[in-house]
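Quick board copy: two proteins, each given as sequence then tokens.
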Amino acid sequence: TEIYTLSLHDALPISKIMVQLFIDGGGFMWPILFIFIIGFVFVIERLYHLIKGLSSNEEFAYDIAATVKQSGIDSAKTQCEGAVGPVANLCLSALDRADRGADEAEHALDHSGSIEMASMEKNMTWISLCIATAPMIGFLGTVWGMIQAFNDIKMANDISPAVVAGGISVALLTTAFGLIVAVVLQVFQNAVLYIIDNQIVTLQKSTTALLHAIKDSDKV
């Protein structure tokens, strides 16, 4: 197995070098690739779901609260029905119970808030599983490569570098690729968690503004 060094004089593009390294890594590279694909699919699904929900934000809740004060609950409900996202869902659930009083609206918000938070965090455990599993598969490939290297020493009855280079190469490549996959997925997971944290803050501010509007409308 060749030892690869990158320099300005390399004729092969990086993509071909990566493919060759992947092939030289042996059979353990395929499970790592599969884990990366699965984790990336879940990341894209979460980003799509969360970004789509950003269409209704804190300003939307303030507009709904203003509509409640100016035009009444029915007009605010009509405005919510055409919107998408957790803020719109929470506002609609509260307005559906607003005719029974502010306390009922608050209970509806608590219940719907738990559902919306669970919806935002859906599939995050699978991303975490992929992050944890990829390095473990890489380490398993490392152990397998070292076993192969010692078997080669035993068969050749020689401990020269040329004999053990193949097994050690497999060991290093699988570990490296497993860690790369984990790092990439971890970065994406942190981006998803950042969006979720911001959404939770937005939900809290939105529900507070809407509840104040509903309570004010009850006093009128």
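And the next:
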Amino acid sequence: MRIISFCADGIASAAEKGFFDWALQQDADIICIQNLGAQEYDLQDDLYYPEGYFPYFYDSPHSINGVAIYVRQMPKAIMTGLGFGELDVEARYIQADFANLSIGSI
């Protein structure tokens, strides 16, 4: 299994610089992205939905921070936040649960 973790410092900027082209060439099963700097509704371009992956986003209402996880196999469950109430508004954690594995992007 191949997993990539990437701090984007703004997913739109990273995409413009070729992040998705590079990431798809890595043939990863799971791609974790931190610091999206965007809300999911801003990410409607097909670029953010590469073929062969199921994307899941957890974004902040202020377009700061935010995390995403792209998986090839549909997970059993997706969990967001760490259960800290007010602190979870910063959107810093998303987790994909599979049969015998959980992967978190923090």
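Board note added afterward: The longest strand covers residues 3-7.
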